[in-house]
Write a structure and sequence with these properties.
There is one protein chain. This protein is an alpha+beta fold and 298 residues long. Helix content is 23%, strand content 24%. The chain has helices at residues 22-30, 32-42, 45-55, 64-70, 88-92, 139-143, 146-151, 193-196, 202-205, 273-279; strands spanning 5-8, 13-16, 109-111, 116-121, 156-162, 169-171, 177-178, 182-184, 208-214, 220-226, 234-236, 249-253, 258-264, 269-271, 285-287, 292-296. The longest helix is centred in the first third of the chain and has 11 residues, at 32-42. Keywords: Decarboxylase, Lipid biosynthesis, Lipid metabolism, Lyase, Phospholipid biosynthesis, Phospholipid metabolism, Pyruvate, Zymogen. One of its GO terms (molecular function) is phosphatidylserine decarboxylase activity. Pathway: Lipid metabolism; Phospholipid metabolism; phosphatidylethanolamine biosynthesis. Its cofactor is pyruvate.
C-alpha cells in the first residue's frame, strides 16, 4: 500500500504521514487474515472498549514521553506537563493552552473544528470523491434521516481526520446554539485512509454522533463526530440549548484516530482556495483548529 501524503498549509509542501500502528493497519486491511480478524474482533465495540480501558490504566503513563518525542509533539502547548498526566488516555484527551490555538477573529470566516487533515466537498450533489476519485459515501446513511439528507443534498461538507498523534478535542466552527446530540450506533472500523480507500462507506456507517447547530446567518449547521477502532468513546462537553462562540470546545475523543464532519446548507459558505485545490485531487490539507477554513456568504 502507498504512503499517506497530505499537504501542510503552514510548511507549504507535501508531507508523508507518520502513522501510529502502521504495520497493524496494513496487515488488518491489506491481508486475508487481517480482514478476517477485522470482521471477527477489531471492528466490534467490545474491542475498542477494552483498549480504551487499557489506556486508562496508570501504568500507561510510561508511554507518553516516548510518544511525544517519536511524533514530534510540542509539549509547550499542553496545559499539563508530561509528568502530570495520569494515564495515556488523560494525555490523549489533553487540553492545550489557549494561546496555542488562536481563533480566527473575522466575523465572516468559519474555522476548522479540529486539528487534522481536511477534505472538503463544496457541493455534495457534484461530489467527485474523497480519498479516491469517484468514491463517496451515502448522505442518507450518514445522517440516518432521509428528510435531513434531502435538505443538505446540495450542501457543503468538511471532513476533518484526526490522527492518534493529533490534539483530540473538537470545537464549534461558528457561533450558534447547539441542540441535543443524537447517537447513531454502528461498528468501529479505522478511519485511516488505508481503510477508507478500501471502503469509503466506513465514514457513513461507523458509530457516530450528530448535533444541529442553529446559527445567526448560516441556518442550521450539522456537526458529526465519527467513532473508530480503539476510540474508547466520544465525549460531549457542551451544554445543549446554550449559546456558543466560534472556537468553543464541543467535546473530545478518547484513544484512537477519529474524524468530524461539518455540513452546511447550500450556498452558505465558500471554502478556502488551498482546501478546495487539495481536495480536488483527493489530497488532505493539514490545518489546526481555529484557523480559517472558509468564508461565510450569507
Amino acid at each position: 500500500m502507498e504512503d499517506i501524503v497530505y499537504f501542510d498549509r503552514y510548511a507549504g509542501q507535501e508531507k508523508t504521514e507518520l502513522v501510529y500502528g502502521d504495520q497493524a493497519l496494513r496487515w488488518t486491511y491489506g491481508t486475508t487474515m487481517g480482514r478476517l480478524a477485522l470482521a471477527a474482533v477489531v471492528r466490534r465495540t467490545f474491542f475498542s472498549k477494552w483498549y480504551g480501558w487499557r489506556m486508562d490504566q496508570p501504568s500507561t503513563r510510561s508511554r507518553i514521553a516516548e510518544f511525544v518525542e517519536t511524533y514530534g509533539l510540542d509539549a509547550d502547548e499542553f496545559e499539563k506537563t508530561v509528568s502530570e498526566f495520569e494515564s495515556f488516555n488523560d494525555f490523549f484527551a489533553r487540553r492545550l493552552k489557549s494561546e496555542a490555538r488562536p481563533i480566527e477573529s473575522s466575523p465572516d470566516r468559519f474555522v476548522f473544528p479540529a486539528d487534522g487533515r481536511h477534505l472538503c466537498v463544496p457541493d455534495l450533489s457534484k461530489a467527485g470523491g474523497l480519498f479516491i476519485k469517484g468514491k463517496m459515501f451515502c448522505l442518507t446513511t450518514l445522517l440516518d434521516d432521509s428528510e435531513l439528507a434531502t435538505r443538505y443534498q446540495n450542501g457543503s461538507l468538511l471532513l476533518s481526520r484526526l490522527c492518534p498523534t493529533d490534539y483530540h478535542r473538537f470545537h464549534f466552527p461558528v457561533d450558534g446554539k447547539p441542540g441535543t446530540t443524537r447517537l447513531i450506533n454502528g461498528p468501529l472500523y479505522s478511519v485511516n485512509p488505508i481503510a477508507l480507500c478500501k471502503n469509503i462507506e466506513i465514514l457513513a456507517t461507523n458509530k457516530r454522533t450528530i448535533t444541529q447547530l442553529e446559527t445567526p446567518n448560516l441556518g442550521t449547521v450539522l456537526l458529526l463526530e465519527i467513532g473508530a477502532t480503539c476510540v474508547g468513546s466520544i465525549r460531549q462537553t457542551f451544554s445543549p440549548e446554550t449559546a456558543v462562540c466560534k472556537g468553543d470546545e464541543k467535546g473530545y475523543f478518547r484513544f484512537g484516530g477519529s474524524s468530524t464532519i461539518t455540513i452546511f446548507e447550500p450556498g452558505r459558505i465558500q471554502f478556502d482556495h488551498d482546501l478546495v485545490e487539495q481536495s480536488s485531487i483527493q489530497r488532505e490539507l493539514y490545518a489546526k483548529m481555529g484557523d480559517h477554513a472558509g468564508q461565510i456568504l450569507a
